[in-house]
Amino acid sequence: MIIKSFPLMIVLILFITAFIMPIVNKKNIVKGISLISMFISLIFSIANLRGVLIGGKYCYSIGHFDAPFGIEFYIGNIESIMAVMFTFVASMVIWYSIYSIDKDINENRIPLYYLLVNILIGSLLGIVFTNDIFNAFVFIEIGTLASCGIVVIKDKKENIKATLKYLIMSCLGSGLVLMGIAFLYSMTGQLNITYIHEVLINNYTNYPKAIVVTIGLFTIGLGVKSAMFPLHNWLPDAHSSAPTSSSALLSALVLKAFAILLIKILYRGFGLEIIAGNMVLDILLILGIAGMVIGSVFAIFQRNIKRLVAYSTVAQMGYIFFGIGLGTEFGVTLAVFHMIGHAVTKSALFLCAGAIIEKTGHKEIDKLRGVGKEMPLTLGLFFIGSLSMIGIPVLPGFVSKWYLSLSSIRAGKPMLIIFILISSLLNAVYYFPISINGFFGEENLKGKVYKSKRKPLKELLPVMMLIIAMIGVGIASRNIIDIIKLGIG
């Protein structure tokens, strides 16, 4: 069936169109190429998801050789639904950037920017799709360079400093992942995740120390790239200094691809039988809790709105590692679901924050008092997104926290619910004041002119689409969770 080639076609479309952009070198045409290629990828992703739901998971061999000698894509429920999420969010962010990117970077760098965006999304999807860990490493390196590129392209002192920190930390993470791949290959003679598991499950008792070291290398290496606390120190600078659309992509998508790869390696490569026998899950659980709480504490003390939203990402990634660390099928299901809810929500929050900074000229939260009168729709969208982060019922943030609490009880760890509640309260502490001071208070609103700094509706449409998608994910959460659970089972 031709539908089985759709994942490869998506990656190729994004890569090929990326290298057409410098040849065209006209910013409006380049913007159109990037947006159209991403929309086509979204259509292919939706068709692929429908095919998987009807026909089941499948493997697609690339080249002349089948696995284990050739490269293979493994496409199941999780890979398919993540592809839809990645291409949808990227489409909305690119749509928004068409109106805003000229204000963030020099005009002559716009073709390069969209080249990097297409390469980045293509490489992230490659990480999600591939069943070959060395092929995943190649995509990791491509994605790392593209990620650094969309931060440093702003070419300001703070961007260069943030990119250097990001690059150094990412290289460290990549090196650890490569060492993990080498250890796995020495133990199994395989690079395909399916075949790695088949070999390991029969002889893992022969390599007790090597197994522990290998799992540690993958966990730390991918933990750096997915901003697992306390390996997150590159994230606030990179996300807050980057162009608005770059911040949205980095927070919503880049971190998620590495978290998905960690899940694939731990749960499909090693298997629960192996990882349950060492401390990796306990460590992930502890670090997840630390990220949830301490990331939120750091966010409270931020005065820059983009840095606040960036530290919120550290906290939200904590929920993902919390779910992975529970060591249950339901916990991993919720980790994947939280990635989806967080992606659509956090991309909308970053775009709203960027719009506010663009129109007011202020990044400091204290100087944004009364902005709700000047930009009611923009701050209104930001407020709705923040409700999900806090955990208001129906929205995906609440669904994640509710089911993570139930999953903690099922895992025999009911005390963990306390940390979920604390994190939610901390989320409210730093999100609510922005909207309250923006909309209310006689002193805050004094001298403000109604809608004087509003963004045109056409520029806010992609943000509105993301908020609608966020609400839709919350309403359809049970169906989405069932789809993900089937993919894990």
TrEMBL record:
Q: Which family, according to the similarity comment?
A: Belongs to the CPA3 antiporters (TC 2.A.63) subunit D family.
What name does UniProt use for this protein? Proton-conducting transporter membrane subunit
Question: Is Oxidoreductase included in the keywords of this UniProt record?
Answer: no
State which residue ranges cross the membrane: 6-25, 32-53, 73-98, 110-130, 136-154, 166-187, 207-227, 248-267, 279-301, 308-328, 334-357, 377-395, 415-440, 460-481
Membrane topology per record: Multi-pass membrane protein
Report domain NADH:quinone oxidoreductase/Mrp antiporter transmembrane positions.
131-426
Q: List locations, semicolon-separated.
A: Cell membrane; Membrane
- Keyword Transcription carried by entry: no
Its keywords, alphabetically, are: Cell membrane, Membrane, Transmembrane, Transmembrane helix
